[in-house]
Amino acid sequence: MRYLRWAIRVFLFIWELPQNLLGIGALAYDRAIGFVVQIRFERERLMIETKRRAVSLGLFVFWTRQSNHWIELDERNKNHEWGHSVQSRMLGPLYLLVVGIPSTMRVVYLLAYCKIRGRRWTGYFDGFPENWADRLGKVDR
Fold first, then answer.
1. Pairing of strands 55-57, 60-63
2. Is the whole model's pTM more than 0.70, yes or no?
3. Is the N-terminal amide bond of 18 cis, ω within 30° of 0?
4. What are the boundaries of each domain within the chain?
5. Among positive and negative, which fits the CA dihedral 29, 31, 34, 36?
6. Helix (H, G, I), strand (E, B), or coil: what is residue 102?
7. How many CB atoms lie within 10 A of CB 34?
8. What distance in Å separates the CA atoms of residue 91 and residue 89, rounded to the nearest whole number?
């Protein structure tokens, strides 16, 4: 039974290979500059609490509870990012196209909105794919 569990983990690592390669790089970078607060293996993922990053890259779920002047974050961010990891499991190699690009575009909009309007955009989690990640992570906003 233990061998089967490891075989499934290896298959899933390969299924999510593009995200996992980016996740390895992001973790190495964050550790090198001292941004990693804590790493725990939970829900079949490496849950990495950082001082600044919130992104889900396959096996690597980076989250932070620290808000900034662009977005209000708290403990719910951990479950939101875990929701993105469920999307990654479902979509495999399509995740970066289907979820990663739209999510990045929402961040670009959020930054532009903040710069132009001088205040936070409160609609970040209202649209695709963020609202889907919230549902999968059972985040109540």
1. antiparallel
2. yes
3. no
4. 2-136
5. positive
6. helix
7. 8
8. 6
